Amino acid sequence: MLAAKEGDTDAVHLLLEKGAKTTLVTGSGHSAYDIAIFWKKENCAKILKPIHDALPKENFFSYSGIQRNARKRHNLEWMREATMSDAAEFILMHNAQPLVAYDSTLSPKAKIRQRPLLFNKPYTEVHHLIKESFDNVIYLGSWTQDASERKKGESLAERNVFAIDISDMRETEVKELYPGTEVLNVFPGLLRLGVADAGIAAQARSLLDWHSKYPYCPCCGSKTTIANAGYKRICTNKSCLTNQETKQEGGKINTPYPRVDPTVICNIVSRDNRYSLLARQKSFPGGMYSCLAGFVEPGESVEQACKREIFEEVGLIVNHDEIEDARWFTREDVVLMLMQLHPDRLFLPPQKAIANRLLTEWLIKTAFIQ
């Protein structure tokens, strides 16, 4: 990292020849290539670019080491057999938050530094948590071989992953039942997970949160039941429009399926590519700024949604109920904020956040503009 920052190409070449780990990152999550770019060390950046380009470019919560196997979801008989298989593993979710495991001998401070692991168990150890109706179990998929980041040295073939909703239990009961575990808060807790765990935790959280909010049919008000391994809810009223085979006026009713709310996030830059417009909400930690983001409204394109977040090209309508401050930052400011070295103690969302990714890519593309 120091060689990249100082622009010492001889040292960079020597370290690479000696087998230095090119995947190592700083505490803020940036590689040697990023460091060379941030500090405008063009020759070092050219050496490290092929390594950077070969690395996977997936957003943190979008990565998934599992094959979702959508065709199997409708087969309840298969699902019941799969849950009782020796190749099945279960993660536990409490109020849409995952149960994670720590070394029980660690102090509270040591736990903060340790990466939590999703607490997963075989059927024999969790079968008593599964309801007879099977309506608190969802199927996530089966591990793929490229998920070795989490399961080193273990065969993953047809190892099915399920999530059990244990929200009916008190959190204290969960800890008594499984010592050394805790329910991981959503933010910033989920950002501490490994990439494979984060992907399935996000999948399970989204589905279970949807189930908790739609116990009744939006069309007729009758109770609904879980179906398709957790990817559908069926209205118990047989005459409900959601149970009719024919399409209704305006298209087929889609309320039985998980709700997806598209959002946009954008890095707004000046015409000369030297400034980035960042803002902070009142709910942000003190000193943190981020890119502008918001929900896509009906009928909008991604571009239209982004434009709605700003006023014309360089102006911004600030709603003080939501946005506390917004300002232009220089490229140098953004570098210092990413590295957590800004003199005013300003900083950006962590490396696993999309805003961090957007700003890092902007710095890479504009590193050597004149």
TrEMBL record:
ANK repeats: 1-27
GO biological process: NAD+ catabolic process; NADP+ catabolic process
Catalytically driven reaction(s): a 5'-end NAD(+)-phospho-ribonucleoside in mRNA + H2O = a 5'-end phospho-adenosine-phospho-ribonucleoside in mRNA + beta-nicotinamide D-ribonucleotide + 2 H(+); NAD(+) + H2O = beta-nicotinamide D-ribonucleotide + AMP + 2 H(+); NADH + H2O = reduced beta-nicotinamide D-ribonucleotide + AMP + 2 H(+); NADPH + H2O = reduced beta-nicotinamide D-ribonucleotide + adenosine 2',5'-bisphosphate + 2 H(+)
GO molecular function: metal ion binding; NADH pyrophosphatase activity
Top EC class of this enzyme: hydrolase
Assembly description: Homodimer. Homodimerization is essential for its catalytic activity and protein stability. Interacts (via ANK repeats) with BLMH.
Protein function: mRNA decapping enzyme that specifically removes the nicotinamide adenine dinucleotide (NAD) cap from a subset of mRNAs by hydrolyzing the diphosphate linkage to produce nicotinamide mononucleotide (NMN) and 5' monophosphate mRNA. The NAD-cap is present at the 5'-end of some RNAs; in contrast to the canonical N7 methylguanosine (m7G) cap, the NAD cap promotes mRNA decay. Preferentially acts on NAD-capped transcripts in response to nutrient stress. Also acts on free nicotinamide adenine dinucleotide molecules: hydrolyzes NAD(H) into NMN(H) and AMP, and NADPH into NMNH and 2',5'-ADP.
Name under which the protein is recorded: NAD-capped RNA hydrolase NUDT12
Species this chain originates from: Paralvinella palmiformis
